[in-house]
Amino acid sequence: MQAEVLRAFRFTLAPTSGQEEVLLRHAGAARWAFNHALGMKVAAHRQWRAAVEALVEQGVADADARKQVRVPVPTKPAIQKHLNSIKGDSRTGGLPEGAAGPARPCPWWHEVNTYAIQSAFIDADRAWGNWLDSLRGKRAGRRVGYPRFKKKGRSRDAFRLHHDVKKPAIRLTTYRRLRLPTVGEVRLHDSGKRLARLVDRGQAVVQSVTVSRGGSRWYASVLCKVTTELPDRPTRAQRERGRIGVDVGVKHLAALSQPLISDTPASQFVSNPRHVRRAERRLTKAQRALSRTEKGSARRAKARRRVGRLHHAVAVRRDSALHSLTKQLTTRFAAVAIEDLNVAGMTRSARGTVATPGSRVRQKAGLNRAILDAAPGELRRQLTYKASWYGSQIAVLDRWWPSSKTCSACGWQNPRLTLADREFHCTDCGLRIDRDLNAARNIAAHAVISGTSPATQVAPGKEETQNARGASVRLPGPRAEKQEAMKREDARPNSQAPPRRSNPPTSPNPHQEQAKLF
What's the burial of 470, exposed, middle or buried (CB within 10 Å: 0-12/13-18/19+)? Predict the structure, then answer.
């Protein structure tokens, strides 16, 4: 099936010292433009709040006051028009030609590409819209907080340039050189042969490029509209290998229900590289050196750059390992079954509150660090989009299904299985198997492909509930800060009865706040 899809081609740049200064100037301009646009939106929001509070003080009901007050929040066209009317020009002493008065903002605008500023305005609009949609319950996922200003030294240095079709300024001049408007031709560490050939054949059209800095490296992500063949069904080799269950963990990065490589049983366990632990000694040394420096000094800036380089190296190694695993899974199997993990709940701190302090806080912090280093959320994200590329499907097992405590052979449940038990022993059929491998087989057998009926996906005699505790899988509200019901694999008294349930919570989340909308 031929279709047009958006794909990004990421290259590592090797800019000269002069080009790096230009890149930093563009990143600073984008940061300033974002803050300028967000400042205008925040000012309008505060004006609306003040008007509402004034009406409330006069005796108007809060709900009625919110409906009466209307303060338009400026968007990109209005912000850009306002900036054009007030901005200065460093070529004329900071003032528009023939004007007099105090210095105007943004006198350096002509030194950077205009798309770097316009794209920042678009990003500010998107951040503001995401916050409003999250408050109103129109946006799925975790709650989006109030947009924050970008601070130099803390926010990521990045900017985006859009492609002009009439005057193509973003293009590969050679396989090793990428031309960026205003910046010029920048050398690549990688080869751009694949993208260049797609463009030459007319199968790819450049849309934009996002330039960002990670550690001491600069990257260019070229977004293209690519005309490609998307498989509508698995290949013959994928159908022969069928479905594979993936149990993500900490001891092993993943336990697989069948070998990743044929006739290689050892490939059922993917070792966890533990990237953070390998770099822990160097990170500790670098962070201690950073803590001994004086704020604002040159030595502190140098020490901070070293810490950033080490963290970036860890992130690159983690991405490389995950990309290698997810591509093998999606290209070799017709369906990949995974578990719906609540990563945010699994990695929540155990500190508790002043009234009810937590226990074993340091141990839980170490476990959280290990889970985040394995990055199960990123693993699922990569599997999701790669499955559509290679014709495979993603099957998801409900997060409340007791995959670790259920025998993959007969369905008996062990009510006393703990995390310390690394081997699952079934007293009904006598099966002895690694607990992670047992969970992977259960995931492969009971996961449901999105858009299909659960009744056609669950094996006979194996009942599946939406929630083993009777609570909703989603947050109780669009602005709830946490999910009360965590995963608990309740024991099943016998192989015929379904898992036990507890009554769903009837009281609202105590941490849920009443959001103030426009």
Answer: middle
